[in-house]
Predict the 3D structure of the following.
Amino acid sequence: MERKKVSTTVYITLEQNDCLKVLNQKTKVPIAEYIREGINMVLEKYKHLLPGQMLLIQEEPKPSLSKPLLDV
C-alpha cells in the first residue's frame, strides 16, 4: 500500500548531505528514504510525548514507526 507523501523543506549540514550522497551512490536507496527512516526513528524514540489515549481493551500492536518504508 502506497502512503501519500507531502513535500517539505529541511536544512541539513554539508557533512550530512555529503554522507547521504555517498550512501545513496553505494546502496541506490533514495536519500529521501533515509530521511524518512530517520524521522521514524525520532518519532519512535519520542512517542511517549505524542498525544494519545489509553484503551480499555488492548488492541493488536501497530507496526513500529522505526521499520524502514518499502515504498519510495
